[in-house]
Write a structure and sequence with these properties.
Blueprint: E1 3-16, H1 30-38, E2 46-49, E3 52-61, E4 64-72, E5 76-81, E6 86-91, E7 99-106, E8 112-117, H2 125-134, E9 142-146, H3 150-158, E10 161-169, H4 184-193, E11 199-204, H5 213-232, E12 243-253, E13 259-265, E14 272-279, H6 287-310
Antiparallel strand pairs: 1-8, 1-9, 1-14, 2-3, 3-4, 4-7, 5-6, 7-8, 10-11, 10-12, 12-13
Length: 314
Amino acid sequence: MPRDAIKTVSFFEIVRAKDEQSRRMEEVDWQRALSGIEQRPPLSRIFSSDSGSYIGIVVTAFEKKHLLIGKIGPKNLETVDLDLGALQEMHLEGNRGTIETTAVSFLPYGNIIGVMQGSMASPRISAIQNWINSCGMTTEEVATWPVISNAAWKTLKNAEAVHSFEFSYRPNPANSSPEGEGMMSYIKLGNERYEDHRITVKIEVPKTKDVSPLRRLRGQRRLRQDVEQLLSSLGHLRDSTGITRARANVTVAHDDGHTTETPLDFILHRVTAKQRISFQAATGRPRYEVSVGAILDAYQDCKAELEAAVSTDR
C-alpha cells in the first residue's frame, strides 16, 4: 500500500552572512560545489554541535545533484509488534546508525534552495545552514533567508506610515547574534541573557495628541527602518529557534486618495507550498527521489513569485 503524506516545501535564499551592505551573492555553481562534496570521505562531511551530528550526502535525481542533510541517530532502537504489543530491541552491526534526512535542492534561479523535511525530527534550516558553513561548500560564510513574497515587501516599502510592529522569538545562544542596532539588539540581548524564555516585543508610534506630528513622523520613519533591517536579517526568521511572529500595522494609500490601515503578517507571507507525496516500496523508487520531485514540482508552481521576491532590492 502506498503511504501518502502532505509535506511542506520551504524556500530560502542563500546570502552572505556578514556583509550588511551587500547581502546577495553572485549566482553560485551549486552543481560544481556538490560534486566537490561528493568526492570527500564521509567523516569530512559530518558536522557536530550541541543539537547533534549531521552528515551531508549528495544524491542524483532528475539529472541533477541534490543534497540530503541527515541527523545521525542511535545505533540501537526498539521496535514494536503492533499485533502483540511486544517490544524488541534492534541492534545495528558495524559502523552504522539511524538517520533522519531533509532534502535540499539548489534551484536554477538566484541562490534559492527548496527544502523538505522527511519528518519532524529531520534537520531544520538552521542545521542546514551550519552544515553548509562548516563543510565549506562556499568560499565565504553564508546565511539562509526565508523567501518572503514580493507583495509583502512592496506593501512595507510603499506604505505611507508604519504604526506598530510586534515580533516574538525564542533566543538561541547557539546561533550567532545579528549585527545592528534597534530591534536587532533585542535578539542579541535575548541570546545573551534570556535563553530559557520566549520573548515578545511590540513597538508602537503613539497616536495621542501629546505627540506632535513631527515626532510622530520621525517615529514612523525610524520604525520602518528598523523593521526593514530586522526582516533583512532573515537568517533569524526561521523555524522554532528564531522569530515565530512578525507583524506590522501600516497605512496604505490608494489610487483614489483614500488611505487604509493594513496589517502585514510576514510569517504568513513566506513562500511555501504543500505537496502530496507517496512512498511506495514496491516501485523501487528511493525516498529521496520522491522528496526531490516534490520540491521541483513546488518550484514550478511558485516560480514567478520566487523569482520576483529574490529580485527585490533588500
